[in-house]
Design brief:
globular; alpha/beta; Rossmann fold
């Protein structure tokens, strides 16, 4: 019996000892594939050189992870040099441990993907890249001097996975890339046993976000949009789920008071994930007009709960739900468009709920891990 092939992963969005609260999406992808072994260098940028470290493990008992803090300037200043140093440190770690691997995967193309490219060349191993639209686009758009290097990386890569499906045509405007290399890789939903409920409150809306980023997530514009709609939908309410600093919560409450929406909008605070999933089906819709989002797992959780969504075009989940009828895409910069999208959701909620109940298992299969993990395993076996 042959051993599984091993992939060296470089990832900033990976829970680790330097940043344990990172979202688990990349970890779920890396660790849930029984056919592919792994070793992870989980990265975190720090502001000062003396804060750099290399710590064994992820803080949760996985010894196939190394937590590495690296020094880097904000706004992508000196990014290529920072990633070159990360590559040098990782190369030393590989040699020290005599680590054997068959491919290297950089989980953010224009960031740790640069370090992964050097490691791929030094060790003569195939390169795999993941593309996350918003963060990668900032480098591609505002660092034109980096584009020749990024183009070489794309040509060198064995496969390019889009966590942000909407960004695929944009990347292809900047670079010539073989279409055969390009694949989609959504974040995976946790397997759930319960099916969505058919009963719900027809005027109860929900939005779920980090309150510290409430402007980037569009909450301020959403509140103004609700103000436009309160006369048309007098029973409409909004639950705002999420945690934030005292100062941000105060800002949000001040805005709610200025708009006289105290009777319409409620800040629930954070709700544990499983409890939130159990409650989601009570709502008529999820409204989250975020301006920047790599994927947006919360939209998938809502759809699987039978809840229609108002989502932003050109970011987040856009591109993965083209065939799903129970959605309304809006311009997150436009208050009137957010209001129109929310009104459409409220007017068509029964139709949307029936559609989601009918096609629940097809949506669940679309965002399940198995086909993507199987395809990744097949790719690694071929390299």
């Amino acid at each position: 019996m042959t051993e599984n092939r091993c992939v060296l992963h470089l990832a900033m969005d990976y829970p680790n000892r330097n940043r344990p609260n990172n979202t688990p999406a990349v970890r779920n992808f890396v660790t849930k594939n029984p056919g592919v072994d792994y070793f992870v260098v989980a990265l975190r940028r720090v502001a000062w050189p003396w804060q750099c470290n290399t710590l064994q493990g992820d803080g949760e008992g996985d010894e196939k992870v190394v937590s590495m803090a690296f020094w880097g300037l904000p706004f992508g200043i000196g990014l290529v040099v920072s990633m070159w140093i990360v590559a040098l440190r990782t190369r030393a770690l590989i040699r020290q441990r005599e680590l054997q691997f068959d491919a290297v995967h950089g989980h953010k193309f224009a960031f740790e993907g640069i370090a992964a490219w050097w490691l791929s060349r030094w060790f003569k191993k195939p390169l795999i890249l993941s593309v996350r639209g918003n963060s990668d686009h900032k480098i591609i758009r505002y660092k034109p001097f980096a584009r020749p290097l990024l183009g070489r990386m794309l040509q060198h890569a064995k496969a390019i996975y889009y966590v942000s499906a909407w960004y695929r045509p944009i990347l292809n405007q900047y670079f010539e890339v073989s279409q055969e290399k390009q694949k989609l890789l959504p974040n995976f939903v946790k397997q759930r046993q319960q099916a969505p409920a058919s009963d719900f409150d027809p005027f109860r809306l929900v939005t779920i976000l980090d309150l510290n980023q409430y402007r980037d997530k569009g909450l301020d514009k959403l509140l103004h949009a609700l103000k436009l709609l309160e006369g048309r939908y007098p029973k409409m309410t909004l639950d705002v789920v999420g945690k934030g600093s005292d100062s941000k919560i105060k800002e949000i409450n001040t805005l709610i008071a200025e708009l006289n929406l105290e009777a319409k909008v409620r800040l629930t605070g954070p709700i544990p994930n499983q409890e939130l999933i159990e409650q989601l089906s009570q709502y008529a819709g999820l409204v989250l007009p975020t301006q920047h989002d790599a994927f947006g797992m919360v939209y998938v959780e809502a759809l699987l709960s039978g809840v229609a969504v108002v989502y932003s075009k050109g970011t987040g989940i856009d591109g993965f739900i083209d065939d799903i009828k129970a959605k309304v895409g809006i311009d997150p910069q436009s208050i009137t468009d957010i209001a129109a999208g929310t009104a459409q959701l409220l007017d068509r909620q029964q139709e949307f709920r029936h559609w989601l109940l009918r096609y629940h298992y097809q949506i669940k299969a679309q965002f399940s891990a198995e086909p993507y993990l199987s395809g990744y395993k097949q790719l690694i076996q071929q390299v």
